[in-house]
Design brief:
The complex is a heterodimer of chains A (187) and B (111).
Chain A: H1 2-12, H2 17-35, H3 43-60, H4 64-73, H5 82-90, H6 94-99, H7 101-113, H8 120-141, H9 143-150
Helix pairs in contact in A: 1-2, 7-8
Chain B: H1 7-18, E1 21-22, H2 23-33, H3 42-54, E2 58-66, E3 69-76, H4 78-104
Antiparallel strand pairs in B: 1-3, 2-3
Helix pairs in contact in B: 1-2, 1-4
The chains are: A mainly alpha (187), B alpha+beta (111).
Chain lengths: 187, 111
Amino acid sequence: MATFERSAAFWLRAYPRGWRAVRASEMLTVLEEQAGPTRRLDARTVVDLVFGGWATRVRMRPPLRVVAAYRLFDRRPAARYDAWLRDDVDGLLFPLRDALWIPVALLPLVLLVAQVWSDAWVNFVLTAPVLVVGQAIVTAFGRSRRIAHLFPPPPGSDVGPFLPYRGLDGVVASTDRAVVLDPDARR
Amino acid sequence: MTFRMSEQAYLVMLALAEEPRHGYGVVQAVLTLSDDQVKLGAGTLYGILDRLVEAGLAEASGEVVVDGRLRRYYRLTDEGLGALTAETARLRALATRAQRVLGARPAFGGA
């Protein structure tokens, strides 16, 4: 029994992470009911799953133009691509995916420089990996900030950025008040 | 959003038009409707269901847990019923034209 579920879970990884979180359990039911007492995933089902998973990924992915604007200019894709965006920033390889666009952004510059400096391409190819790895490390450390920026918590939610303590009387107990000695300055 | 109507999608919509069904129920209904010709895989089925829901032609209509397994039911929306009716009319018109073309041909084996 566990073998079937493990096998199904493995092939279901063809689907995007966020999609799986919502639909995997009902799809597992269908797979189990289809397999019947044999409890085996046949080759046809597996191929169908892999194709279905990739089709789902392609369908959820924004057009290249939107991805480029997001990667290069930090322009947030429209809300209908949120499922893709969420999976993107949550993914293991997100820092690398993000950083790989830097060489792409530099291409026009290199193309220009190569007109006057014949070694431009060699130097570009040699330095690009360093740039990518460096940027990936920076991105990895800033990931949680990026997520908070892309998906700000709804107003009124109890988990949010840390703000000065607000007492029940609504007065902000600011540390500044403790050092105000001149009463006139409080107005 | 335009919906690409494949034969499989048409059969799924027909299955959902009869009554709300869960995933495996749709697979079985499609098998019956297609005279055992179309056996939907889970990947194909969910691709079609996703597209139907995105296009507003179908919607989830409830969940049931049977033997510890989650079954989610789907039903056709009014819009979906309209699309299905329109597609059926198109197919009927096509079949009528096909009959006319075949009827105009000399019979097989004839001179």
